Amino acid sequence: MSLVMILLTIFLPPVAVAVKQGIGVQFLINIVLTLIGWLPGVIHAFWVNSREGSAVA
Q: So where does this one cross the membrane (predicted)?
């Protein structure tokens, strides 16, 4: 992960998921987790962004 993506994941988790996955199920899950609390959203965003081969074609 690049430094920009790491910073985006920490400060704006839904945006980082949208950049990596697009607007879809993972994005909606991350929105809900971020609304519940900042930390669950960040953890989910790091998980989504660290998976291999998860980029949208």
A: 28-48
